[in-house]
Amino acid sequence: MVHSHLHYFAYPMTRAGFRPVVTTLHGRLDLPEQQRLYRHYRDAPLVSISDAQRPPSRTPIGWPGSTTGSSWTSSPSIR
Fold first, then answer.
1. Which tens digits make up the pLDDT trace of 4-24?
2. Maximum distance among all Cα pairs of the chain, rounded to whole angstroms
3. Which of 45, 40, 37, 79 is nearest to 64 (CA)?
4. Entry pTM
5. Which residue, 39, 16, 15, is CA-closest to 29?
């Protein structure tokens, strides 16, 4: 499994199929210029740094879980 902290730079790897990839998002998710990326890569498994980070995004995002430090708040289901 590849666990990326590179935000959208790793999204293409999620479709390459050679390894499962999950990306932890840091920062704001409600920026208008990012919404197009979230729609295009809506199948990319993304992890938030907290449950509170999720609501600002109006675009459906594939959330397998949240992480705080190194612990998951729910079990990830990575394809």
1. 888 888 888 888 877 888 888
2. 32
3. 45
4. 0.64
5. 39
Cβ burial of 60 (10 Å; 0-12, 13-18, 19+) is exposed
The two tokens of residue 8 are: 């959208």
Say if strands 62-68 and 2-4 run parallel, antiparallel, or are unpaired: unpaired
> What b/e readout covers 30-51, taking b as 16+ CB neighbours within 10 angstroms?
eeeebeeebeebeebbbbbbee
Q: What tokens were used for 4?
A: 């990326």
Token pair recorded at residue 40 = 């295009």
**CA torsion through residues 71, 27, 24, 58, sign:** positive
> For 23-26, which contacts have Cβ atoms below 8 Å and span 24 or more sequence positions?
23/47, 24/48, 24/49, 24/67, 25/49, 25/53
